Amino acid sequence: CVLCHREEADQHGAGHKLVQQGLSAHLGCLFFTNDLFQKAPKEEGLMGFLPADIRGTAWRAMQEDCFVCGKSGATIICSQDDCDRAFHLPCATKGGCVTQCRLPY
Domain count of the chain? Predict the structure, then answer.
């Protein structure tokens, strides 16, 4: 997965891995990643997430170190006003961080 850097889905919320045109990402990682949006119908790209957007987000995330594992590429930023911690999705759920979806998801 280009967003969490894990091979397969695990019990920590990453979900099913989608693959298209040499690009792979877990469904959970796509939906939880900050500033990544479905801009196309779900039949296009990876469930409507465009490959160029996914790659751009992954590249920008290389500047963020994960609060839990310490490795770069963290794509989820805490939404608390006073918190700037960043995480990979599997690290966030494994580390006990609250992860929840809000509408429209």
Answer: 1
